[in-house]
Amino acid sequence: MRLLQLHSDFIEYEPISKEIKDAEENVSKTKVRLEDLVVTLIAIEVNDDKDIANNAVNEIKKYMDTVKSKRLLIYPYAHLSSCLASPATAAEIIKSVEQISKKLLGDVHRAPFGWTKAFQIKVKGHPLAENAKVLTKQYSVTTNASSDIGSSCSDTTITTQFEEKVSSALKAEEKLQSSWYVLQPDGKLTPINEYKFKNDEKNLHTLANYEMAKKRTVDEQPPHVRLMKKLAIADYEPSSDVGNMRYYPKGRLMKSLIEQYVTGRVMEYGGIEVETPIMYDSKHPSMESYFNRFPARQYNIIADGKRLFLRFAACFGQFLMARDFQISYKHLPLRLYELTHYSFRREKSGELVGLRRLRAFSMPDCHAMCRDLNQSKEELLKRFELSIDVISALGLSIETDIEMAVRCTEDFYNENKGFVNELVSRFGRSVIVEIWKERFFYFTLKWEFNYIDNLNKASALSTDQIDVENGKRYQIEFVDEDGNRKNPIILHNSPSGAIERVIYALLEKSAKISKSGKVPSFPLWLTHTHVRLIPVAKQHVILCEKIATELSSEQIRADIDDRDESVAKKIRDSEIEWIRYTLVIGDKEMHKEKFVVRDRNEGKQHEITLQDLAEEINAQTKGKPYMPLNLPKFLSHRPQIMV
Fold first, then answer.
1. CA triplet 238, 239, 240: central angle to 5 degrees?
2. Tens-digit pLDDT profile for residues 619-632
3. I need a surface site. Which of 27, 167, 194, 634 has the fewest CB within 10 A?
4. For residue range 78-89, what is the model confidence (pLDDT) as tens digits?
């Protein structure tokens, strides 16, 4: 079932004619107008049955409570899906939704089923006015729909029923009992309920409360969602599963640049880049065992009699590869790296919002096979410094934007206090520590950098883990100095965290900056356009082209606003797009060596030569990857992206 809920000022609809032979009978053709309501467009799909109606009403009620609406219109709308149930099934389920809604919600209306209708609607202009949901009969895999319903599904039906397989680690995580502490850089460990948080530790206190509460659902839209749409970076993809996004050209360029930078830094560190499949047989012995040690839900696929799953990390692909290597202790630490396009985790729908938590994401994933715990700790400290450098270069301050958490077993902490204290000392501020009496997962220690957003939600970015199980589980072996075969300890590091989550953090940081009255911006190397050129008239376009070409030769992205708009509007649009440097080219500039450049970040303008401008920009983007514009240079040639 697919729902599109619209908080509306009004809707007017008028039944015109029957659209299908099974359309509802005895329908009045009188125009209907309803005001101040939620309009729920609903499509019933091939695997839906009456049981799903209760789930639908719960979602509808939850949304109506959120937007504080008391009136509902259920509007059958087949265009939300290409895999529709039969008309008889769809009508039955929609009527069931109506009946349950009337008992629970009261003021409920329904548009006729199977009719062509003319309608007008005015949706309210607030961030939560549109809400899309995909509901499924959980964990039933079906391929098909019969050909008589006109869907794009295949004509044959194969249905396999199975209960959701939830990993033991995930079950343990939900019930996990931990002891929580604050660890200060001087090594002092204090139970969290006894610690007095300082004035400048507000975010650390927020992180502690968030982690202990274990509430991951989101009740309102965070600011970055509005910004990602406004800046044409990304948006929801209504025709996909929830948590899978579309990225517009500006977002794709930003993602590519971050991916290149992180990959380059891992290569400098010594990472060996590989590529592994995204799909695996869940019955493979090592897979089934590892699955129960990893706290993630997964996507399952039935094909050729096999139950497959989409990878939730690059771990097992790299481990299976390493198992086939001939490894000596001299090769260790062996660092395998992959930036996954994509990793898949079937997160709960209530936890999915914008770019913060997704079901498909890109993850830089570097595993280091280490000889023993001492080598593991030495290597982890190197990767810790790498992660600090990467996060800082991406535009997030370790001092003001990031909070740190450490999770470990009680035994590991007691035996390695000096090492844990060294980590916190290098971070430079107090961190929260979660300590388990026993080990529930495959790792004995995990650290992570967290960003606290405008809704006081914490999201992990950089992380590393000390894995003491998977060397043996995957039969990875190295020949030690004494000639014996041994299993390595494995470190799991992502120096940046998911690429999408980096963009989320940058947008949320920008929202905070804007709220404080300052000018929000991205690091210059990540902005789509470095310089916007604005010709005053058509005769000035040629000079703009020449300037753009010169800047491009210096690896500077420049575009030209040649649209038939006023100069004032073009300047305003450049500001709205967060373009830092804007040059207006008119008659005075035709024969001058210096140009007046508007600097959005500084809020002022000054005269500068083209060469000096190029040097100023290159000084800010030094050491970062470059890509040319991925949109036409002339704005008049670009399609308008409707967001």
1. 95
2. 999 999 999 999 99
3. 194
4. 888 877 888 889
